[in-house]
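Database export, one record per block. Field names are fixed; values are copied verbatim from the stored entry.
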Amino acid sequence: MAAGHIPVTASGLVFGDLYRHEGLLALDREFLAELGSADDALREQVVRARAAPSALAPKQESDLLLALAPHLERFIARLFGIEAEVRALAARHRELAPLHAVKRQFVQRKAMHGIKPQDAQGIDGPALRIELERAFGEPFSELAFARHVTRWQQDEPGNAAHLDRALRYAAWAAHSSEGRKQHRSGVLFKAPAKLDPQRLIPVVTDASAGFKSHRLDGAHRRRREGFKLTDPGTDLVGALDEANYCIWCHEQDKDSCSKGLKEKAAAGRGAASFRKSPFGVTLAGCPLDEKISEFQHAKAAGNALGALAIIVVDNPMVAATGHRICNDCMKSCIYQKQEPVNIPQAETRTLKDALELPWGFEIYSLLTRWNPLNLRTPWPRPATGKRVLVAGMGPAGIALAHYLMNDGHSVVGIDGLKIEPLPPELSSVGPGGSRVPFRPIRNIKEELYEALDTRIMAGFGGVAEYGITVRWDKNFLKVIRLLLSVGPSSHCSGVCASAAR
């Protein structure tokens, strides 16, 4: 179906307008009008911030973006007609909230601190589990445990026996070898491990043969069978566990994951320098200055699309970062003596949660061109008439092409590998480079993704294409390539010799 045949806004804009400069300006006006109707003071803040973004202190900008995020989420949901799906996604976030409160307040502070590991070994966990299931009135799960403990704590005297069983079970699950094995795949009965820089990889040592040999515990092994994806990353439960483990230290301007971990400046010695890890690595934080603490805050609040929009402000090519790609943010996390927040996992899950919504790719694509949370460049600049050739479509070339296109230049990207053509209905490029109508992507898994063991290399992505193994989902390369083929058609010819959609 042609892009122009799908109306998406009350003012008459259609899908094709979302890929045109004038359409994006009209969309922004519609967003500001809707924002003004809901919160006129916030709209005025946005207008002033866009006029002088450098006048905002970091904390002020963070607060503004977090205030805007739910408004943007509602606007996008209405824009694409997916209000019910976005509400359902937010509800899944809220449903998991007891896990995080009970983990910190009950499991870690009461059970793990109140019952010693050696005492927990003697607890009959399986018998307690049966008793708890009977009290729950439903099968045992970590979420059921958290929900019922939350309810029992509201009337603690009347549920003292239930809470005692739950406390002892939590200690057994967290401390005992059998309990940890039982809940290895969960999040509730775990505490951050202390870091030993000289023993970052846990190994099992065997000296039975007269010499020491080291191997990974069997539970940490991931068998590689053919070329299927071997590491799908975390699910929503895992991502929210990380987002709630984060202490959102942007509020104190201590978000070292983004800005770097600095030494305390000595009196009279000028600005502080970055600290180094025990291995001599400079802890400078995210090289993109991504608003990590802010997106985690929005994610934990259930604003899935708002969290993605915050990420995209500084990291529009987020499909090329995150899990299995980068971890400078983790190295600089405020937690230096215990396990850091797994930011790449949370980041990639945030992207996936958005992509898996109906029209998820189109939403992500739109946010890379129009993003009201980007106070400095909320939409692409007008056409400059300049043409740029980017040689090498690896990570650097990908990012450079995106920013050049949004700066108003026409961009063509080339690579040493043969870049295979995409289907015309996706790229809008027909035989011989002719323009054809494109089909917006409603279901990314059905319409775009391929199984990695049958996928044919497309020649796009540089080291991401030929250097990364099956631990990373290379379907993201097609996502990125389409993002770069879809600039505002008034001035962008797209990369890889592809015309804009």
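Remark 1: Confidence is low (pLDDT under 50) at residues 1-5, 488-501.
Remark 2: The first strand starts at residue 204 and ends at 206.
End of record.
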